[in-house]
Design a protein that fits this description.
Helices cover about 45% and strands about 10% of the residues. It is of the alpha/beta class.
Length: about 290
């Protein structure tokens, strides 16, 4: 199969894969990732608390519900967030909490699977797909510890797909999907289910003029957003360098006044016009 350019996967999730006729594409990806067959019954509202005053908005791109009642949260993240792990923990926790009414028994709780398609490297490691889940270890038996076997699997699962770490080496059906995420093209291999439909439904060449115009606008807005962020980061780094240079100069002056002239921290602060705690911090580092 020729490698032809596809619609970016984030755009597909927002405007194409939400349609019931295209659930099979999403099901194919989930099956390749999770290792078992998935049947989606509906796509849920991702901003579940958008009307709640002062409430945080769920920023996920798509929430799918399968025939077993499991909710699968799929998010594509391009920009680095220092608190990204905390955010996906909050999102899954909120979905779980919202799944129960005050009168419902805890047995009705919803299992949530969080899937993050990341275009930046989160954490340290050489792999490109990671899975995290809650497990209970036996810390009493030191010689032969065994994990606790539970009747129900209710705790959230987290999948982190680090797209930039993928080396374009395709060995599994999941690799084909990660290749698409990275290159916006269908690979020559065809191990994943419905890969022919992926090419057909997400092929840019088959878009109408109106659809292409809307997609080009989306790409333009995405590029602008990335450019603005890049400029903000560069400006922040520049300001940080200036602050570092200024602190270096102050540190030199404090060292001279404290070690050579034997001035007290308060005298140094008054002389240089800087806060006393700043002077004390510099002296503690000498």
């Amino acid at each position: 199969m020729a490698k032809r350019e596809l619609i970016s996967f984030d755009y597909a999730m927002k405007y194409i894969l939400r349609q019931r006729a295209n659930f099979d594409i999403l099901e194919s990806f989930l099956e390749a990732l999770l290792g078992y067959e998935v049947t989606i019954v509906e796509i849920l509202e991702s901003e579940s608390d958008k009307d709640r005053i002062g409430g945080k908005l769920n920023r996920v791109d798509l929430i799918a519900k399968d025939t077993n009642g499991i909710q699968m949260v799929i998010e594509i993240q391009y920009n680095r967030e220092d608190d990204y792990l905390e955010r996906i923990l909050w999102e899954t926790s909120k979905i779980i909490a919202d799944s129960l009414d005050s009168s419902d028994p805890y047995g009705n709780i919803t299992k949530v699977i969080s899937i993050s398609i990341l275009y930046f490297n989160l954490g340290r490691g050489n792999g490109y797909v990671y899975k995290g889940k809650v497990g209970f270890e036996d810390i009493g038996d030191k010689k032969n510890p065994q994990p606790l076997k539970l009747k129900r699997d209710v705790f959230p699962e987290y999948y982190l797909i680090n797209v930039e770490r993928f080396k374009d080496i395709i060995e599994t059906p999941l690799d084909e999907w990660v290749y698409i995420f990275k290159n916006s093209k269908v690979p020559a291999t065809n191990k994943a289910k419905h890969m022919d439909k992926v090419q057909e439904k997400l092929d840019i060449l088959q878009m109408t003029a109106k659809e292409k115009k809307a997609y080009e606008y989306h790409l333009k807005e995405t590029r602008i957003a990335k450019s603005v962020l890049k400029s903000a980061v560069a400006e922040g780094e520049k300001r940080g360098e200036k602050r570092g240079e200024a602190r270096g100069e102050i540190k030199g002056e404090v060292k001279t006044l404290y070690t050579r002239l034997k001035m007290t921290p308060q005298e140094i602060a008054d002389d240089l016009g800087v806060p006393l705690d700043t002077v004390e911090q510099i002296i503690s580092e000498l």
